[in-house]
Amino acid sequence: MRHPKMSTDDPTAEDIKGLILEKAIDRFVRYGFGKTTMVEIAKDCGMSAGNLYRYFESKFDIGVGVAQEYISRAEQILKDVLQRPGLKPAQRLEAFVLEKLRFMHSHIIEQPNVQDLVNYILDERWDLVELHRDVQNSLMSEIITEGNQSGVFKVADVAQTANAIYAMTTKFRLPHFIKNVTLEELEQEAKAVVVLMIQGLKG
Q1: pTM for the full model?
Q2: pLDDT tens for residues 73-87?
Q3: Which of 3, 122, 137, 168 would suit a FRET pair with 174, their CA atoms being 20 to 30 Å apart?
Q4: What would the pLDDT profile of 166-185 be if each residue is shown by its tens digit?
Q5: Rounded CA gap, 129 and 170, in Å?
Q6: What is the architecture of the domain spanning 13-52?
Q7: Which fold has domain 60-201?
């Protein structure tokens, strides 16, 4: 996650917040969320701790900002799947599941120290998880609707089915199930699950 470089001429508050989040994620990746302090983040940003508090009230607020950046990036990847040309509905559904799996796997393997931030979000900011779920379900509903319109799927309740697919693919988003398994193995399992789902969607 990288933000545009801050302008040397009168940086805006958003520029400064972007810099803070960038430096914070560098710290979280290297040392973990729990072991990072506001003083350390401020030093990395070349500012005083007092100045840092002008933009974020606490390290937990910075953690939420970092989590929102990750969520936004994941959602954009999924939105890109819906815009990918030449895919049939079944292929788009598979790509949707696999792209989210690859995103999660890459971050869990490459940035294991971020796990305590994930745990904080799961424990203290479940609302962010629910919002992300709703976005994913909305995007999945578009795929199902596309399948219905093309005659490939026969789904009566699109929203309910999208939520069911979310539940069926939860394993491929949870760190506990991902971190000790190769991506190839996970992809094979995910594809098998998608095959079963598509059979059900065809009615």
Answers
A1: 0.88
A2: 999 999 999 999 999
A3: 3
A4: 999 999 988 888 888 999 99
A5: 12
A6: Orthogonal Bundle (1.10)
A7: Tetracycline Repressor; domain 2 (1.10.357)
